[in-house]
Specification:
48% of the residues lie in helices and 8% in strands. It is α+β, with helices and mostly antiparallel strands. It binds glutathione. Glutathione binds next to helix 3.
Length: 204
């Protein structure tokens, strides 16, 4: 089975990259060049995903799967025994999807305007306040827990980790949220996370 993950270094595509590595799946990593917008073979990325964003997973049959929260579940379901997502149909799986939906709509999309050069300056403090309120809530949820779902690392943790990496360039100080800061450091130390970060050139 050949899977190809289109990614941009340090973007939310780091989440499925980490998941693939944690699962031991031999996913081919194809970098989308930020300047040219082309993949490694010179294809215009918008021809692959007209929405223009990573991640995209190319499947064995040549079709494409989009949307990070769905891609990570697809990958986890290829190796359910690894436990990166509870079995489909269980209440625990809905709890995971509850996290993924919160992360994508409330965390990810409050980060996005802070990166976009076209965001009006007077909106940025509002987006920042929204983001900080939600990160503060997550900090409370992590009290006494190793990971979002409890003691086990899941695909939701890969997603939140990828986004927490953005706090540094945006000067969102994490030390006011001790559970979240410890959680970020805990995930950063996982061997497959270190390996994924190295492949993307995020650390040496
Ligand atoms: N709804 C999409 C959003 C993905 C997204 O926002 N991707 C960003 C990177 S984190 C992106 O590629 N933005 C366009 C760009 O960087 O040019 C998903 O959840 O996968």
């Amino acid at each position: 089975m050949t899977l190809t993950l289109y990614y941009r270094p340090g973007a939310c595509s780091l989440s499925p990259h980490i998941v693939a590595r944690e699962l031991g799946l031999p996913v081919v990593m194809d970098k989308v060049d930020r300047q040219t917008g082309k993949t490694s073979d010179g294809t215009e990325f918008v021809k692959i995903n007209p929405k223009g964003y990573v991640p995209v997973l190319k499947l064995d049959d040549g079709t494409f799967l989009e949307e990070g929260p769905v891609i990570v579940q697809y990958l986890a379901d290829l190796k359910p025994e690894a436990g990166l997502a509870p079995r489909a149909g269980t209440m625990e799986r809905y709890r995971l999807m509850e996290w993924l939906n919160f992360l994508t709509s409330e965390i990810h999309k409050n980060f996005s305007p802070l990166f976009r050069p076209t965001t009006p300056e007077d909106y940025k403090p509002i987006a920042r306040a929204n983001l900080e309120a939600r990160l503060g809530w997550v900090d409370g949820q992590l009290a006494g827990k190793q990971y979002l779902m409890g003691d086990h690392f899941t695909v939701a943790d890969a997603y939140l980790f990828a986004m927490l990496n953005w706090t540094r360039p945006l000067h969102v100080a994490m030390d006011r949220w001790p559970n979240l800061a410890a959680y970020h450091a805990r995930i950063a130390a996982r061997p497959e996370v270190v390996a994924a970060m190295k492949v993307e050139g995020l650390i040496k």
